[in-house]
Every structure is written in C-alpha cells, then in structure tokens.
Design goal:
The protein contains two helices and no strands. The protein is mainly α and 64 residues long. Helix 1 packs antiparallel against helix 2. The longest helix has 34 residues. The two termini are 23 Å apart.
Amino acid sequence: MDVDLIFKIAAVGILVAVLNQLLVRSGREEQAMMTTLAGLVVVMMLLLQKISDLFDLVKALFSL
C-alpha cells in the first residue's frame, strides 16, 4: 500500500477538522457541515481511484 495515500487522507482530515472548528466557533454551523461533507467526498474520490486500480489489477492477473 502506498504510504503517500495515507498521508493525503490524514492531511485532508486535519484540514477539515481545523476548518470545522473555526467555522463552528464563529457560528457558521452550516458551512462547517458543508466543509466536512466536501472533505468526505475528496477522500472517497481518492479511495475510489485506488479501488478501481485494484480491480483492474485483479482483472489483468486472472485475464478476465
């Protein structure tokens, strides 16, 4: 597994957590929720790309 992917996910998580806390403390709960959802979408897109690569590798390995 690529360690770089773990660092990217951690960086997105830290950034979203800091932005979430800043927005909640300033009274902007709706924007904080949208920031959290956007961070989740970014991480899911990163993971979906890797899962797609895995399925392509399995197809090539078994000649499907």
